[in-house]
Design goal:
alpha/beta; Rossmann fold; 165 residues; 18% strand; 5 helices; 3-stranded parallel sheet; 3-stranded mixed sheet
């Protein structure tokens, strides 16, 4: 699919289903910020919606739920994104945080029901599978997650404009 003609500054698209979106309002790196339903992911660039997507994950608990309780939903989402050239999951945790079993809470009393290592194995195994089978880039960005997403989107737009992608 050929992307639509692009303008000088990109227009950022934030998926309307994103519950607590990163705030890019007033960021002069973007022509504007619009809220539209994306086929998958939470952030993209207008005209490149079928080329790049960024899925935001706020915590290790969110990842654990995605790969256990919501497993069919996340699988369906990445199936819809199979033709996207660039797919990212940006996690608002460090890799160290993801690998720390004390960060996962699988019940209301905030205690791991099974082995504390089990959630770590589920998340790391599922992320590895997405990277291999769906060519998804996973970035553990911690507190720099929003900045990383912005940089990826702007660099993709720039490279596309210059004919490098």
């Amino acid at each position: 699919m050929t992307p639509k003609k692009l303008i000088n500054k990109p227009t950022l698209i934030v998926d309307t289903r994103e519950k607590t979106p990163w705030n890019f309002e007033g960021d002069d790196s973007f022509e504007e910020v619009v809220y539209e339903k994306l086929d998958g992911g939470d952030y993209s660039i207008q005209g490149l919606e079928d080329f790049i997507t960024i899925e935001r994950k706020a915590s290790v608990d969110e990842l654990f739920v995605n790969f256990t309780k919501d497993k069919k939903r996340i699988r369906a989402e990445f199936d819809r994104l199979k033709d996207h050239k660039l797919k990212f999951i940006i996690v608002e945790e460090t890799c160290e945080g993801i690998l720390n079993p004390d960060k996962y809470y699988v019940n209301k009393r905030r205690i791991n029901k099974q082995s504390p290592m089990m959630p770590v194995a589920v998340v790391s195994g599922a992320l590895t599978e997405l990277m291999i089978t769906d060519n998804v880039q996973v970035i553990f960005a911690g507190e720099k997650a929003q900045s990383m997403a912005k940089h990826i989107l702007l660099k993709t737009y720039e490279l596309f404009q210059r004919g490098k992608l």
